[in-house]
Amino acid sequence: MIEFRLPDVGEGLEEAEVVQWLVAEGASVVRDQAVVEIQTDKALVEIPAPAAGVVARHAVATGVMLRVGDLLFVLDGDNGEVPAEVEAKAARAVAPPRPAPSPRSALRRVKAAPAVRRLATELGVDLATVAGSGPSGRVEAADVRARVAAPAAAAEPSGAGEPREGLGQALVGNLPLVGLRRATAEIMTRAWREIPHIHGSDEIDATALLDLRRRLQDRAGESRSQLTVTVFLVLAAARALKRYPLVNASISSDARAIEVHGEVNIGFAAATPDGLVVPVVKGVDTLGLPELAREMERLRGLARSRKATPDDLRGGSFTVTNYGSLGGRFATPILLPPQVGILGFGAIRERAIAVAGRVEARPTLPICFGADHRVIDGDLSVAFQETVKDLLSRPAELLIDPRHFDFKV
Amino acid sequence: MVVGEVASATDVLVVGAGPGGYAAALRARQLGRRVTLVEKAAVGGICLNEGCIPSKVLIHAAELASMGAMAADFGVTLEASADLKAVRASMERTIGGLGRGVDALLAAAEVERVSGIARFSRPDRIVVDDGERVRHFEFEEVILATGSRPVALRGLERDGERVLDSTDLLRLSSMPASLAVVGGGYIGVELGTAFAKLGARVCMVEACDRLLPLMRPFQGEAVQRRLASLGARVMLGTQARELTQGGLRVETAAGPEEIEAAKILVAVGRVPNTDDLGLELTEVELDDGGLVLVDGSRRACPHILAIGDITDGPALAHKATAEAEVAASTACGVAASFDPQAIPEVVFSDPEIASVGWTPESAERELGAARSFRLPLSASARARTLGSRGGLVEMIVDGDGALVGVHMAGAHVSELAAEAALAIEMGASAEDLALTIHPHPTMSEALAEAAWGVIGRPLHAMRPKV
């Protein structure tokens, strides 16, 4: 019999909450099979069985907070081989979300050429929602790109769209506040209660940004899907942070000290089926655009498949949130303590703006900078936001090698 | 469970080096991943070594051998005789050359090659046994491309002597006096026709009421007429029962009968190679037929993807290759989806058969409205100059006039399938096809002419006045 206690799953972790038992009491497990999911401050972690055997007892129920060293479960090891049949059954008992098998049907009629369908898949555009401009309503590549650049046309009539699957769905009654939900609740409460937020907003002419992105995508071939708008936003934030290091700082929990960070580590908010997760790209100040795009793609994949490690989620010195990817235009983001700055971006949409004395329809990008007023005053807040705005409206500078990047260029 | 074994790590592990597997390996390398490719036999899989490629050599040899009658029509006297051993040698040369080509591509791309039989030892591990030693592999993603094998027929199990599968038949070193072909699908039809041309007395035994039962009736009928003219017997609605002293007992609608057969080819379908992969250790789900269930990105479950004959759809090399493209992208983190509008199917029979997309019935049922037109290939100048008689091109458009299906029987129509597939994929209308200038005199003109026909203004077809 093995008494399995909550291990130290990450630096500094003291407690964790049991989110879900993946193996029932009495069920067999193979070695390394995930038995239980726990939630730390930072991440959802699957705890594997240390040996093959039978899970004799869950020491605690779902929702209970445990400290490192507390009894988690009891395993009856069998000191030998588990029959393959049992192993197989046990392996199947762990059932992370699996893809829905495609219906066994023949061919589905889509009016778009193969390269256009591929582009739509890569850009995450559902062809059924795009009005085709080609003959007989055929969807062309330009239609798909336009849909990404300015989701306005199709998505703007609000309320008409389908919500993300499961979003806001719940049965009437009491729900336990557990797991990622509870972690989010605790952090946000602390931020809201303790931090005097100030917010500043503006709109950015995104014509050059979209044009640059499109041209880079055309060159990027297979990896063009990685060049999301968010990559440019994170890069612009990193460059601006190098100019104003005080924004790249933390405030101590007793509000007696400010730690200014040498490295720019930017968290970017990613919506996952489990809730909000903020993976952190380390050392953005040393990365060029392609490296940053690859790293963000990697982290986003890990977050979505719930494989992000605690290390992937901590160490952020600043946060960027692109609620525009969900369609929102204006919002006032809440800081992630102990950081002192957060940049929010809304959806790029065509709006009438004045350009050299004339009214023109231009894609515009709303920006909102949230700052901790204990550290950052209005002047710095505006200066920082202006720098980001400047970089995004003339984005060619973002392509300069970070080692040579200098505002005097 | 094996504890303490040392596992080699790779990014993408591909199991099976057939037309799906090697393509997936090459594409994943292009996307920058470390790739390991496992194969138990030779690169190229069944397609290159035992299927499509050697059978096309045999079919071409049989065509050459049977050209005497046609040659006479063109004022040429030919005397032909075939030596199966030499035909086999020709197959080997073709297989060897193509196989070396693929080997070179894989080497140039720096794909790691591993010989042996692969099997899951854990949900996240694959063990490869080459008969001498066992190696363990860890992977980020595994792409299963293990293909299929001929299904056995109860009572007529392969013995490699009298009861053969297609692989055995392609390896015969002397001509059988008589050959019974059980199964009138594309493999049976292709090989039955070839052996009839090479001089064997061929009897086709098919349980359905027509040859090529999965294709358009006019296609099976065209093939049946040609088989008859080659002296072959075609028994439809007939079940093969058991071996007899000199042949095969069959059950026809009229009762039992015994047919003479020195050799018997059983080609009644294929089964996926999913039963010996250790899949029960994984979360992969199989359907009743043993096919791996996958989503549009070819994913069966986290970290496991599947392509080719072990998944739903026709067991065709080009389908596997197209799925490989999608699976490799998915495995490398690039969003991709297998969403073809048409998977062309071709049969190298006489005449050749090609089908792309919807039939008039399926288009009517699934797309709402459809129109179709049939162009006899007697209208094709090129068919006439090739000495080919008969043949048909059937074209189907949807309610908007966009091309959704083309079905053909005739000389070289296998080469027309791609144009039809491209038109369907691009959403071309019949008018687009009709107004595209097709070179004269070629078989491809038939597509433009059929397009004019479906528009209602054929130039080379008449509407008798009533």
The greatest interface here is: A-B, 45 and 47 residues
- How many individual helices of chain A? 10
Q: Characterize the largest beta sheet of chain B: strand count, sense, and whether it forms a barrel.
A: 8 strands, mixed
**Gross morphology of chain A:** globular
| Helix-residue proportion of chain B | 25-40%
Task: Please estimate the helix content of chain A.
Answer: 25-40%
**What integer value in Å does the Rg of chain A equal?**
24 Å
Oligomeric description of these chains: heterodimer
Strand content of chain A: 15-25%
Main sheet makeup of chain A: 7 strands, mixed
Query: How many H/I helical runs of chain B?
Result: 14
Q: Element order, helices and strands of chain A?
A: EEEEEEEEHHHHHEHHEEEEEEHHEEEEH
Structural class, from secondary structure content of chain A? Answer: alpha+beta
Structural class label of chain B: alpha/beta
- The rounded distance between the terminal residues' Cα atoms of chain B is 80 Å
Number of strands of chain A: 19
Give the low-confidence spans of chain B. none
Strand element count of chain B? 23
Question: How would you characterize this protein structure?
Answer:
The complex is a heterodimer of chains A (409) and B (466). Chain A is an alpha+beta fold. Helices cover 28% and strands 24% of the residues of chain A. Chain A has ten helices and 19 strands. In chain A, helix 2 (114-123) runs parallel beside helix 3 and helix 7 packs across helix 10 (378-393). The model of chain A is unreliable at 80-106 and 152-162 (pLDDT under 50). Chain B has helices at residues 21-30, 45-49, 52-65, 68-73, 84-108, 166-170, 186-197, 217-229, 317-331, 360-367, 381-385, 417-425, 430-435, 445-455, and strands at 7-15, 35-39, 112-115, 117-122, 125-129, 134-144, 148-150, 163-164, 178-182, 201-205, 233-235, 239-243, 247-252, 255-260, 263-266, 270-272, 299-301, 304-306, 345-347, 352-357, 370-376, 392-398, 403-410. In chain B, helix 1 packs parallel to helix 9, helix 3 runs antiparallel to helix 5 (84-108) and helix 3 (52-65) runs parallel beside helix 7 (186-197). The longest helix of chain B has 25 residues, at 84-108. The mean pLDDT of chain B is 94. The chains are: A alpha+beta (409), B alpha/beta (466).
